[in-house]
User: What shape does this take?
Amino acid sequence: MSSTKEHTRRIHPAVKFSFMGLLLTMVLVVGWQNLPRGVVSTDLDVIGQGMPVLVLTRDVNFVGGGEVMELMGRLSAEEREYVELRVAHLGQPRGQAFSRQFDTRDADLVLLDGDGELLGRVDHPETVDHIRHLLQQHL
Assistant: This one.
């Protein structure tokens, strides 16, 4: 009479649910970070058309540009009144050309005058005050 006992390893249901919850949370966080950070046009044709333009260079593969876009969203209506806000996406040919012309990378801001000439720039501003200083200094 020999009995063979098979030992199967079972994962407790609480551990399974905890793991699934953690996995779902991670997926949601990654998805949230990849949502558009604001409604800023990518139409760069306004450059040189008479109004100053503040252009953010953005690469969706990095978080810096998204952070700066959030800072730009904190500018007041009065601060936006005299400047167009635009995004030069590095995934688009026009954005790549802009980046080459002004030697920018993700999260850099460039302020151009109404003729499209460079007024100033801030490389990866960390606060909205850095952006405000750029605007106040040149406009």
